[in-house]
């Protein structure tokens, strides 16, 4: 069996990975099994350079705040501000501290410097302005949307009306809300009215798209639509935070990935004429099968952004899951997928899941991680993965 498994693996290169994908791929999701380990964004950088130089990719989207990413994109596309500024303002989740992310923006800026605008690489975030400790307030997104539409159309709501309904930002960002739904303002009468206004503004943005695009630009309209998606998504999320039902946390997971999928869908449409996109996030946000997570006594299930977008794109969506072997004293048992792959001679390998399934002569046991930050691959669902990228040791 060992020889058959070796036949399913090749040393990692961008070319060995893309050889396993459908030629129709427009969105490639590269998952990582844990955050904060530089080996995975470093591998992502290597893959992205290959995709740009040999496969026609022109953009990358990361599991990071979609609004904050506008600052990072402004730096890489037009050299606006500095790299330090782009790192401090252009990421969420602490990802601005990653040396690999810094190298990514530096390389993208250098690539773009001598190229015309239509050939330049773009950087996107596709997460909402959300953290594990809570959600951002809707003011920045909602007022930016209102300002854009109000500059060209007569509206029933003034900026002062929005400010009055929004109230102090601290009401929206109270960290106690994550544990106590009664502290949330997401279902107050004012919040419900704001949801209606945000929905109406987005409808106006769509209904008047030809006029607004001609008056401004396609890029300006796209940013306004980004603010519309974010405003409506945040107001929906805050309403979910106010839910006192026992299903509250699972519902919030669903809402977050639905926002991610909306953003990915918009990015794919925007980039349709330029080239495919690489999306980088946790495996749980990009996988096709249902995501599972145990959080204390809660057993959570939700459909990931990858699963949702795959229903839209079909074989134009591809998913490469990344996993690893040893992490210090945490060595995977031999009856797990990671333990089996640890016998491969390659420090980094690309595995064909179909060939691997053919080579297996026994059922594998899911790996139980030594720490809560790592979520192992389910060996029973590798048939829904287009490629596995294995890092032998981190």
UniProtKB/TrEMBL annotation:
Xref: InterPro entries: Emycin_Estase (IPR007815), Hydrolase/PRTase-associated (IPR052036), UCP036794_erythomycin (IPR014622)
Pfam families named among the record's database cross-references: Erythro_esteras (PF05139)
EC category name: hydrolase
Molecular functions (GO terms): hydrolase activity
Hydrolase keyword on record: yes
Gene3D superfamilies: Biosynthetic Protein domain, EreA-like (biosynthetic domain), EreA-like, domain 2
Keywords noted in UniProt: Hydrolase
EC number: 3.1.1.-
PANTHER family: ESTERASE, PUTATIVE (AFU_ORTHOLOGUE AFUA_1G05850)-RELATED (PTHR31299)
Name this protein carries in UniProt: Erythromycin esterase family protein
Protein species of origin: Nonomuraea mangrovi
């Amino acid at each position: 069996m060992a020889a058959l498994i070796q036949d399913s693996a090749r040393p990692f290169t961008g070319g060995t990975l893309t050889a396993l994908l459908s030629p129709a791929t427009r969105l490639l999701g590269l998952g990582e099994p844990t955050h904060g380990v530089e080996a995975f964004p470093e591998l992502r950088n290597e893959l992205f350079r290959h995709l740009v130089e040999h496969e026609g990719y022109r953009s990358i989207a990361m599991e990071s705040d979609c609004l904050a990413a506008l600052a990072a994109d402004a730096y890489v596309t037009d050299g606006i501000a500095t790299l330090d500024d782009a790192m401090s303002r252009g990421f969420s989740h602490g990802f601005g501290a990653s040396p690999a992310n810094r190298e990514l923006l530096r390389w993208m800026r250098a690539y773009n410097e001598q190229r015309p605008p239509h050939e330049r690489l773009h950087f996107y975030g596709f997460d909402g302005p959300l953290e594990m400790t809570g959600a951002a307030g809707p003011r920045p997104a909602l007022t930016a949307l209102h300002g854009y539409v109000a500059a060209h159309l007569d509206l029933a709501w003034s900026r002062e009306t929005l400010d009055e309904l929004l109230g102090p930002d601290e009401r929206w960002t109270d960290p106690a809300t994550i544990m106590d739904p009664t502290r949330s303002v997401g279902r107050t009468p004012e919040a419900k009215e704001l949801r209606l206004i945000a929905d109406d503004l987005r409808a106006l943005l769509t209904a008047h798209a030809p006029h607004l695009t001609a008056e401004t630009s396609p890029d300006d309209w796209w940013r306004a639509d980004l603010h519309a998606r974010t405003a409506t998504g945040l107001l929906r999320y805050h309403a979910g935070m106010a839910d006192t039902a026992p299903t509250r946390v699972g519902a919030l997971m669903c809402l977050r990935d639905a926002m991610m999928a909306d953003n990915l869908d918009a990015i794919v449409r925007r980039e349709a004429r330029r080239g495919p996109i690489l999306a980088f996030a946790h495996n749980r946000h990009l996988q096709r099968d249902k995501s599972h997570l145990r959080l204390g006594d809660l057993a959570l299930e939700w459909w990931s952004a990858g699963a949702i977008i795959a229903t839209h794109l079909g074989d134009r969506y591809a998913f490469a899951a990344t996993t690893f072997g040893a992490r210090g004293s945490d060595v995977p048992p031999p009856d797990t997928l990671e333990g089996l792959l640890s016998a491969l001679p390659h420090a980094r390998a690309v595995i064909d899941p179909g060939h691997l399934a053919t080579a297996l002569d026994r059922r594998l046991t899911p790996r139980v991680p030594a720490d809560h930050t790592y979520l192992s691959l389910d060996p029973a669902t590798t048939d829904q993965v287009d490629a596995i990228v294995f890092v032998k040791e981190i």
